[in-house]
Amino acid sequence: MELDPSDITPAINRLKRAQGQLAAVIRMAEDGKECKDVVTQLSAVSKALDRAGFLIVASGLEQCFKNPDEAMDKKEMEKLFLSLA
């Protein structure tokens, strides 16, 4: 099943923000910033990636309901969900 990019625009935007946040985390680590500050920003990046992943999976589920002939089987969908846990 292929995703429609227009359906996952919010996830794409979130991923782009996370990309910028990750670059900032790398700079912070290279500049020797406080451990607590680096880990806090790293946590924010991780949450942004998780949310983007869930948005993409939710979009895929919605597409499965709209197009049952192209739907993934239950095992494949379960594997996708668990990969984000």
UniProtKB/TrEMBL annotation:
Gene3D superfamilies, A to Z: Metal-sensitive repressor, helix protomer
Signal peptide positions (record): none
Key words of the record: Copper
Database matches in InterPro entries: Metal_Tscrpt_repr, Metal_Tscrpt_repr_sf
Source superkingdom: Bacteria
Family stated for the protein in its record: Belongs to the CsoR family.
Protein name: Metal-sensitive transcriptional regulator
Organism: Kocuria atrinae
Phylogenetic placement of the source organism: Bacteria, Bacillati, Actinomycetota, Actinomycetes, Micrococcales
